Amino acid sequence: MTAILDVRGASRHFHGLKAVDDVSFSVPAKGVTAVIGPNGAGKTTLFNIISGSMSPSAGSIVLEGADVTTMAPEVKAARGLVRTFQLVKLFGDLSAAGNVAVGFHLVTRGGLFASLVRPRWFRDSEKHVGEEAVRLLDLVGLAEMASYPAAILPYGQQRLLEIARALAAKPKILLLDEPAAGLNTEESTKLAETIRKIAADGVAVLLIEHDMKLVMDIAEEIVVLDYGHKIAQGTPGEVRRDPAVIAAYLG
C-alpha cells in the first residue's frame, strides 16, 4: 500500500541522551498505525519531530513524497498532517460546535474586512462551517452536546471533541497522542469506534497509546520503541509474539 508518511532515520539527541535514535518506518495512506513502548521510549519526542514542533538531530520526514522536515507545524497542518496532544487543549468558554468551528481556519478564507462587511460568500462559508461542525460532532458521538460549553463536558467527551476539532482541518493523516489517557472502559470503547470511523473515511491515523487492548483492537500496524530505538514493527499478532517486545514492554 502507498505510504502517506515516511519517517527516515529520525533522531533527536539532548546533550548525549538519545531520546530518538535512527527510527524509520512508513505509515500507509489508509488504516491505523500505532507507536507503543514503555515510558521514556521516545514516543512523544518522535511525534514532536513528525509534527514539526521539534527539529530532528538527524533524519527526515516525508509527507506524500515531499520532504517536510523543516516545515513549521502550521505549514504541515495545511498540507494535511494534523496532530492532537496528550493534554486536552480546548477553548473552555466556547461551545463544542464553536471549538470545532475554530478548527476550520486552515481550510476557510476570511478576515476582518469580510467579518465586518459580511458578503454573501462569507455568510455561505459560515453556514457551511456550522453544518460541518455538527457533522463532525455527530461522527464522534457529540452532536447532542453542540451547544454545551467545552469546559463542562466530561473528560472523555473533551477528548473526542479535540479529535473532532482536528478533523475540521481536513487532515490526510491524523496524529493522536495518547487519546485514551484518563478514559474509562466505556469511553475507550467509544474512542475505538470513533478512530475506526475516521480511518474508514479515508484519513490515515497514527497514534501513540498505552492502552494495549485499544491498540490491538484497532491498529493494522504497530511500531515498538524502547530507549529511543525501534525494536519491532508488524501486525498486532506479530508484535504480541515478538520476544524483544515481550521483554521490553508487554511482559
Concise synopsis of the structure shown:
The protein is of the alpha/beta class.
Could you tell me the radius of gyration in angstroms?
Answer: 19 Å
Order of helices and strands: EEEHEEHEHHHHEHEHEEHH
- The share of residues in helices is 25-40%
CATH topology of the largest domain: the name is Rossmann fold
- The end-to-end distance, rounded to whole angstroms, is 31 Å
Give the helix tally: 10
Shape: globular
The mean pLDDT is: 88
The CATH superfamily of the largest domain turns out to be P-loop containing nucleotide triphosphate hydrolases
The CATH first-level class of the largest domain comes to Alpha Beta
* Strand tally: 10
Largest beta-sheet characterization: 6 strands, mixed
Name given to the CATH architecture of the largest domain: 3-Layer(aba) Sandwich
Strand content: 15-25%
The strand order across the widest sheet is: 6-7-8-3-9-10
Describe the structure.
This protein folds into 2 domains: 161 residues, 3-Layer(aba) Sandwich (Rossmann fold), CATH 3.40.50; 81 residues, no CATH class. A hairpin with a 2-residue loop joins strand 9 and strand 10. The chain has 251 residues and is an alpha/beta fold. The chain has 10 helices and 10 strands. The chain starts with a strand and ends with a helix. The radius of gyration is 19 Å and the shape is globular. The strands form 2 sheets. Strands 6-7-8-3-9-10 form a 6-stranded mixed β-sheet, sandwiched between helices. It has a 4-stranded antiparallel β-sheet with strand order 2-1-4-5, covered by helices on one side. About 5% of the residues have low confidence. Helix 3 packs across helix 5, helix 3 packs parallel to helix 6 and helix 5 crosses helix 6.
